[in-house]
Amino acid sequence: MVHRRPVPPRTEIQAVRTRAIVRRLRPRRDGGRASGLTATSEYPTGLAAALSLTARRFTYERQRPFAGSPFARFFREDVARMGRDLAGQRPENLMVRASVGTQGWASVPWLAFFAPHVTRSMRHGLYVVIFINAHDEHITLSLQHGAGAALTQLGPEQGHLHLRHMAGATRKMANKSGHDFSNDPITLGSKSALPAGYEAGCALSRTWDAATISPSALQADLTAMLDIYHQLTGPLP
Question: Taking a C-beta distance cutoff of 8 angstroms, is the pair 78, 84 a contact?
């Protein structure tokens, strides 16, 4: 039998409080940009989704080692293959390349479509390219003049003038056939020299928000831009 002392009337009994169990949550180091991609998840298989993911994730990936990066390999190989699948439906021959950098991370990733008889390089000539602006999480389709050679030969100031002149002449020719692309300057979200040159060399463009780009819009606009490119550059001699 347990004996308890009597409790006087009106006496308050203090409840025993147990210490709450608090779990400390560590903030994400990627600022949430890596959502939708884990070590075990698969990369997107569609071009629009792959470009969208790159725009949202690239800032985070640039903080990681470049050598051996699965993400860099995904963009360089798989995204290029997706571009080739679309280009392969066209009658003309196009060379397709994708890059997030060569020996290190680039400021602006790109997926480019080259007419081989015009150019095979981002450095010079006219081509169609999709730029990734990771800073603003935008994706820009551009009818583009290569900037690297002009900047090397002429320097930044004269190089930009030359590129804007070339882009203006191309824009004038393209406008004769009619289109609904933008003639306004593009912004690639980087202060580096080469992206600034790309901005100067853009003739026509279309920009999407990474969160809202749709496969149908991307394919339709890419097809229309490649049609203009084909009209301007002509068939392979």
Answer: no
Q: Compute CA 209 distance to the chain's CA centroid, rounded to the nearest angstrom.
A: 10
Q: Which residue type sits at 56?
A: R
Domain that holds residue 169: 47-228
* Residue 172's CATH number: 3.30.920
Q: What is the DSSP letter of 182?
A: B
One digit per residue, the tens of pLDDT, for the chain of length 237 reads 444 455 455 444 344 444 443 333 333 344 444 444 434 356 888 999 999 999 999 999 999 999 999 999 999 999 999 999 999 999 999 999 999 999 999 999 999 999 999 999 999 999 999 999 999 999 999 999 999 999 999 999 999 999 999 999 999 999 988 899 999 999 999 999 999 999 999 999 999 999 999 999 999 999 999 999 999 998 755
Single-letter amino acid, residue 48 = A
Q: Is residue 142 part of a domain?
A: yes
